[in-house]
Amino acid sequence: MELVFLENRKDSMIVELKGEAHTFPGLLCWALLKDPKVQVAVYEVPHPLVGTPRMHIKTKGEEPKAALKKALKLIQKELDSVNKPVSKIRASPKAKGKK
Fold it and tell me: Quick one: 2-92 is in which CATH superfamily?
């Protein structure tokens, strides 16, 4: 994924998410809206087959890039927490051979 910043102001930003469709932008909106300083986090896809998602972010009291970084860290943390139990199950020697 490549981020292309189309607009970057003190309290708002528009960024294209090249190489993405709907899944990641939806997840990113969720993570951004967890931040109480983010007022708006929405995305649009101009054309459903060939469009590149554009994320619109509006903040209050925080730079949009900082909010974006925090949201990406939150996504990484959530993915790590999901991955840990799966790796422990696979590595457990007790799980082998049990029915």
Answer: RNA polymerase, RBP11-like subunit (3.30.1360.10)
